[in-house]
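Database export, one record per block. Field names are fixed; values are copied verbatim from the stored entry.
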Amino acid sequence: MIIIEGIVGTGKTELYNALKANGMHDIQYNRDQNETEFYKKYTSIDLSSTDNAVKSQSFISEMAKGEIVHGQCRLTMEQYENLLRYHSTFGAFVVYLKADKETLLTRRLRDTQNYPLIGMKYEFINDQYDMVMDVASRHLRVMEIDTTKTSTQEIIDQINKFYHPTQKDRHMWTL
């Protein structure tokens, strides 16, 4: 299972779509927005069939951006680490996409919601992501990729070198 994470504009959706076009399937989490059930939605999914699966953003995003988006993070650090341990038992790993502020602002120029957020909060969000990825790396494999000058195909090539599904599911993804 691959979890794609990063600030808006780093290329998560493009990478997610490319991986899905190459045969990966999406993991569906319960979409219940009830804050008291937030942790439960991530512990109630069945991850036993996550071979060849991809997810764009997850509970990791909540740890990095929850305070900005919701006014508070809806997970405790203990819950976050429990979720990381749970996902590790299924071989999950994280592709953490990054880009510099100027690149993100250029990519989101017409995005009236996220452009100002990136402009004002980039450093804070970037620092939060770095912190939660540091914690994630204690439990999961984390591949950090700077998308400023890296194409989606180059990212897929790096994933192919890093990702080792079971032999029967092993294949190479290309655009």
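Remark 1: The CA atoms of residues 51 and 166 lie 8 Å apart.
Remark 2: The two ends are 19 Å apart (CA to CA).
End of record.
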